[in-house]
Amino acid sequence: MHRSRKPWIVVAAAATLFAAGLGCKNQQEAQEENLPLLSAIAVASPRAERQLLDGFYQVENNSWRWTRHEFSVRLMPPQGAAATGARLELRFTLPNPVIDRRQAVTLSASVGGTALPPTTYTAAGVYVYKADVPAQAFSGTAPVKVSFSTDKFLRAGEVEARELGLVATTISLLPSK
Q1: Beta bridge partners of 41
Q2: Which among 33, 44, 64, 131 counts the fewest CB atoms within 10 Å?
Q3: pTM of the predicted protein model
Q4: CA distance 151 to 114
Q5: How far apart are CA 89 and CA 94, in angstroms?
Q6: What is the DSSP pairing of strand 40-42 with strand 167-175?
Q7: In whole angstroms, what is the distance from residue 119 CA to residue 104 CA?
Q8: What is the rounded CA–CA span in Å between residue 79 and residue 176?
Q9: How far is residue 110's CA from residue 20's CA, in Å, rounded to a whole number?
């Protein structure tokens, strides 16, 4: 009878180790969820993942993500933004296939529901969209939803299965200058 218990002991020990491993993963995920939200994110960063709300595809080349024509993030405002405003920056690439087919793309943004001035791009390249965000877009130190949209994009099935807007790398709310 003693011998018949040994296999159960091995199985029980393996199950305990497996559960402990899952517990560590859950603890790590819980710790990441408890980290404060950032005011500047690299969209490819695992830490930024929970701040990407909608419209982003998977990370490519460990550094960027394609977006849909509408995409949004949640960012913390910089200190003092509710009194002095902030500056929004989106670093992105407008790829050749988009410009070749659409000739011009207008990028619009809003912070906390406050619309910002749109910018039109007529050439493929690397860009930084910058806009001043008025103080009234912020409610104290609460995180804000930052939304973007492009008026023209590649529809799903046109070049590939996904809808393609632009290639995002970083999104930041910076102190006003």
Answers
A1: 171
A2: 33
A3: 0.81
A4: 18
A5: 15
A6: antiparallel
A7: 10
A8: 10
A9: 44
State the DSSP string of 64-102: EEEEEEEEEEEEPPPTTHHHH-EEEEEEEEE-HHHHHHH
**Tell me, what amino acid is at 77?**
P
Residue 124, CB half-sphere, CA atoms under 13 Å: how many?
Answer: 10
- CA dist 52 to 42, 146, 175, Å? 10, 10, 21
Contact present, 161 and 167 (Cβ < 8 Å): no
Mean pLDDT (whole number) for 109-126: 98
40-42 and 114-121 as β-strands: parallel, antiparallel, unpaired? unpaired
Residue 128 carries which side chain, given as an amino acid letter?
A: V
What pLDDT is stored for residue 177 in this prediction? Answer: 76
Model confidence pLDDT, tens digit, residues 2-23: 555 544 344 444 444 444 444 4
Beta strand residue intervals within the chain, DSSP E: 40-42, 52-60, 64-75, 86-94, 105-111, 114-121, 125-133, 144-150, 167-175
Q: Which amino acid is at 23?
A: G
Instruction: Calculate mean pLDDT across residues 121-140.
Output: 96
Name the DSSP class of 164. Answer: B
Nearest Cα to Cα of residue 50 among 37, 66, 31: 37
* Higher pLDDT pick, 128 / 24: 128
Q: Facing residues of 71 across strands?
A: 148
User: Which tokens go with 1?
Assistant: 């009878």
